[in-house]
Design a protein that fits this description.
This protein is α+β, with helices and mostly antiparallel strands. The protein folds into two domains: 43-439, Glycosyltransferase; 446-526. The protein contains 16 helices and 22 strands.
Length: 528
Amino acid sequence: MHSRSALLLFLLGAFLSTAQNATFNHHPVTLDGEGKLLPWTPYDRVLRLAWDFLLNKVQTEDNGLKTYYAYCCLDPEKMRGTAWPHNPAGLNAMLADSAAAYYAYSGDRRVVDLVRGLLDYQIAHGTTPAEWKWPRVPYASSDHGATEYRGAFELQYDKVHIGRGDGYGVIEPDKVGELGFGYLKFYELTGDSKYRDAAVACASALSRNVREGTAERSPWPFRVYAETGFVREEYTANVIGPIRLLDELIRIGAGNTGAYRQARDTAWKWLMAFPMKNNVWVNYFEDIPFMDKLWNLNQYSPMETARYLMDHPKADPDWRAHAGALLEFVEKTFAVDIPNARGVQWGANAISEQLDYMPKMGSHTSRYASVSARWAELAGDAGAKEKAYRSLNWATYMGNESGAVNDQPDLQHAGIWFSDGYGDFIRHFVYAMGAQPEWAPAGQDHLVRSSSVVSDVKYVQGRIAYRTFDKDSVEVLRLSFTPAAVRAGGKDLPKTNWTFDPKLGVLRIHHVGANELLEVRDAARDSH
């Protein structure tokens, strides 16, 4: 028995030694004492490197624009845009999410300015005419390098037609919802009414064109000619983006809220009746070919639906069962072994994108991690927290010291996508830290989550001051200090409205009736 234990210890030591000497996307693999994956660098640094890359290292193309205005992705060697359809609406929606979350977390207003430029450009150069069937809504795709977004040609690559791209004049209504919500978030962030108006236009088009769905036809088609309403592809399970937009406009009382409520209810009933029951989570990505059968499952729509259910539990009495089932579905479908890659790597579930493209990818693994972290928070599920932590650690390895973020660890096929490496990557780290605030860096001050958009925030030593769009809001912060008081609207909040965990350095605030100059101050500094 003694010799067997010694042998097992020897083998474990040999395994750990081998793994520690391994590299993963150019980084030495770092493991804990149980042989499970640790991040190659802290989450905070992954985010700062990524934003620095977007802010300072992306080049200007021959068309006079920064690459992310007209290209989906970069050639990792040349660092120039590649010949693949651009995905402006989805990308800009993701970047709006990431910028709003990261601004609250960091106070770095430069990220807001960067994304504001992209939203302004989409409104001016990628929006349908006002007289069309789908008026004043964003195009989901464009040809690579194009300075006007008008949909993407069905791509030919090396003179071979491969049938990818929406087609000219074609929009994707789910991206209308997603970017509409991004516009609305930027209205709440900046106070600029043009973003509210753009959001209202998106919601109005969605409400006018909603339809009763079936098992093979969703409330909005996946691809449709914006001018005539002629449908190119009938089905997408991604209705949660439009639902988010309609919900928020109804909540703040903007636009035709009666029509929005009817459209929202139609979409919600269909979601509960079909994909929530049959798991036909098909059609999200802009560059997939037209498919006559609903087989190409993806993880994006079920995970974003699960996130919505956890953030809006009153919308679904069965949210716990549904969200848990969606996590299980994604694990069973996408945390699976594929040729040359395990589904579980050093204890981390590595997530594939869709059945049509199964490499393990950073953005999708980080999405799964952030949803799992939220589930762990709400359900008290230690196993889910462990899964979230390891998968988020796995995702860190996609980032590099330069700030370039690879979409996948297969260096032969990896690219640098502005969606996978930035818009749909950064936000999941902030979401995960919001659910598990002790994962935010110790010894620093960060606002990691707010139920309302944070429109202004300032960090100085021993003090945080911020403003939210809503007067009634809940925030979570990780602090380097013990707060003396929390003030809202010039008055101390009652102790019943905030709690502080000194062991974790986590402050939770609920303020009602005031959204201006919320202050958190260091007790030690106030005593001097």
